[in-house]
From TrEMBL:
Superkingdom of source: Eukaryota
Domain (F-box): residue spans on this chain: 10-45
Pfam families: F-box, FBA_1
Protein name (record): S-locus F-box protein type-6
Source organism: Solanum habrochaites (Wild tomato)
InterPro entries per record: F-box-assoc_dom_typ1, F-box-assoc_interact_dom, F-box-like_dom_sf, F-box_dom, SCF_F-box_component
Positions of the F-box associated beta-propeller type domain: 119-323
Length: 381
């Protein structure tokens, strides 16, 4: 009967009907018949579904957090969250164990990166997992094959993940410094090394055109993928800038940050997406002894990408103590993790704060806003 439906009605009509179903229902049709499975897995349907979903306003939250299992063992889980009419977060699916991330270091040293194409990367310094949020398929990337010469050392500074629209492929990259040590054990003669992994051809390679004077990067500094480039908060000669890596040309460039407030005992920055624009959170370092009742948070938006004059200050917030901002959702809800480990939501419009019943180890939470796409990835068991 099912195959009869496929023969009776034009394929375009069947696609039209499928596009109006939730993705979890579409995925069930893969098991109805071979014809449906072939259609749903075809590149044509995947592209049509991507373009259809891209224009929708329905976004969920993917939250990664870690919980302690015993003295030296932690367990990382993904939570899939959506909201009701009052912006209360609720689970869409049961929590999912994060594969291969059971080590102590996964609590505070991992990065969760969205590609805006249905795949996310969960990165540690030397480990990367690519994960399709919708299909639950994942790939644990092979380690970089490049060895450091005898007498040299490697310090991994940062990493990233994004989509190259020209070659229609996803890229993972790591930035490190390779150096020697002097007779007293201090680093010297350092050179920047960038390694790039391409998902489609499953190969790591080195870039041979890297500027040796890249800005200073730190692994946990805020970063994000946007407009075909990867962006980091970096430092040059004591001043902060936004470093960009073009996913297609594989060339670095800088974006100047706005003149934000400076705090006496430390200023922190977080890159976010707000109103579809590159945005910057500026806030005090609370562990330095600042006063959260008087120190403020600023949110800046770059209305025209890569145009310094288009930076505008959108919000100024007083008395919101956070050192772990996660994501801005629906353009007005800021999610962050409190010092007690709970997930907190703050309404930028109504100046309302809520503590949510979601708990993780301190500084273990990562979050992205996502849409559900069918982007294929080889499944690993």
């Amino acid at each position: 009967m099912v195959d009869g439906i496929m023969k009776k009605y034009p394929e375009a009509m069947i696609i039209y009907i499928l596009l109006r179903l939730p993705l979890k229902i579409i995925l069930r049709f893969k098991f109805v018949s071979k014809a449906f499975c072939t259609l749903i897995q075809s590149s044509i349907f995947i592209d049509i579904h991507y373009n259809h979903t891209l224009t929708s306003t329905y976004d969920n939250i993917l939250l990664k957090r870690s919980n302690k299992e015993d003295i030296e063992r932690y367990k990382a889980v993904f939570s899939f969250l959506s909201s009701d009419d009052e912006d209360n977060l609720n689970s869409v699916y049961p929590d999912l164990d994060v594969p291969n991330f059971l080590r102590v270091t996964s609590v505070t040293s991992d990065k969760l990166i969205d590609s805006n194409h249905g795949l996310i990367a969960l990165m540690e310094h030397r480990t990367t997992i690519l994960f399709n949020i919708s299909t639950r398929n994942y790939r644990h990337l092979p380690p970089s094959p490049f060895q450091i010469s005898k007498g040299f050392y490697q310090s991994i500074k940062s990493g990233g993940f994004g989509y190259d629209s020209v070659v229609n492929d996803f890229k993972v990259f790591r930035i490190s410094e390779v150096y020697t040590e002097d007779r007293y054990g201090y680093p010297e003669d350092g050179e920047t090394q960038v390694e790039v992994y391409e998902l489609g051809i499953d190969i790591w390679r080195k870039l041979d055109h890297v500027d040796q004077e890249l800005p200073i990067l730190f692994w946990l500094n805020s970063s994000m993928s946007y407009k075909g480039a990867y962006h980091w908060i970096a430092s040059v000669a004591g001043a902060n800038i936004i470093l960009c890596f073009d996913m297609t040309t594989e060339i670095f460039r800088n974006i100047e940050m706005p003149k934000t407030s400076k705090f006496l005992k430390g200023t922190l920055y977080s890159l976010q997406l707000l109103n579809e624009s590159l945005s910057l959170l500026c806030y005090p370092c609370l562990s330095s002894g600042t006063d959260p009742t008087t120190d403020l948070m600023e949110i800046w938006i770059m209305k025209d990408y890569n145009i310094y004059e288009s930076w505008i200050r959108k919000y100024t917030i007083i008395g919101l103590p956070t050192e772990n901002p996660l994501v801005v959702w629906k353009d007005y809800i800021l999610l962050f993790q409190s010092n007690s480990g709970y997930l907190i939501s703050y309404d930028l419009k109504q100046d309302e704060i809520k503590e949510l019943n979601i708990l993780g180890c301190q500084k273990s939470m990562r979050a992205i806003v996502y849409k559900e796409f069918l982007t294929p990835i080889q499944r690993q068991s």
